[in-house]
What does this fold into?
Amino acid sequence: MSGLRAPGTTVMEAQRVTVQDVETAAGRLQGHARETPVLTCGTLDELAGRRLYFKCENLQKSGSFKFRGAYNAISKLVSSTNQKPPPVVTHSSGNHACALALAAHQLDVTAHVVMPRNAPQCKKETVRGYGGKVYECTPTEQARVETMERIAAEEGAVYLSSSQHPDIIAGQGTMGLELLRQVPDLDAVITCVGGGGMLAGVSTVMKSLNPHVRVYGAEPEQANDAATSLAKGERCPLPYYPDTIADGLRINMGPVAWPYIRDNVDDIITVTEEEIKNAMTLIWQRMKLVVEPSGVVGVAAALSDSFKAREETAKHVAVILSGGNLDLLKLPDLLSMSEHV
It folds into this structure.
């Protein structure tokens, strides 16, 4: 719900997440979320002109990094009451929907999920498979928020944003803790940015524990609100729903995530649709990994001339492969798109 917030809350009420919150979240996730592997690829190293380390969140439970935040938030909600915990509700184009449904199922909580009608069918089916209740809506932020607010009121559900809730941000930050252990000589890290929760959490960890590590966001040129915001020094949400192959990044960076990004992120790299398709093809062909379009936007940024010009000296760069929930029904179209890359 980037740019909008749940009833009864304000941006000022949001707890500022610290590295201690992230470490507490890591404790909650122990034995529940996977510590995902970091892989390398010689071909991609040659193309990038440096050593790249790929944090494989496509292998995380539910198929994306979103499980970290969802499990942390619901687990904390469950532990805060001696009664049956209330249901939870969210709106999501897919990965947070899947993650929330799985975490809720594991913790015996009912999950209500609003999804745009054009969200990948595989993600809708995954949510239902985990026991979540799906409500489809028109693919606009306004429709998503209005539908979510109606369901929250009807069901007495607690809203858990995909990127603007402090417990979600803390959960996503656990990737940063793992990366610092897995790649001790890290010079820079790149994460894709949609709502901004992952970039907020990871940047908080990096700048708190190893501030020499440069932190970059990556987003499609056609959904460049984070880049515009960082350049102008103020949050600049797009007034329209962007059309990009990276369906998970169509949402605006949110007001809670923005201060973290403003204060901790060194720059935002934007990439073209062709660069995203090229990166996806390389990951499929060279690394044999199933990664969705949104998940390779950081790869496209790492290979871009723009990043190379900014980071001539960085020898060790981590890239988070954020998710692998690829809609196989659309695979022929994606392959066709990549034929001319």
Summary: The mean pLDDT is 92. The radius of gyration is 18 Å. The CA atoms of residues 35 and 178 lie 7 Å apart.
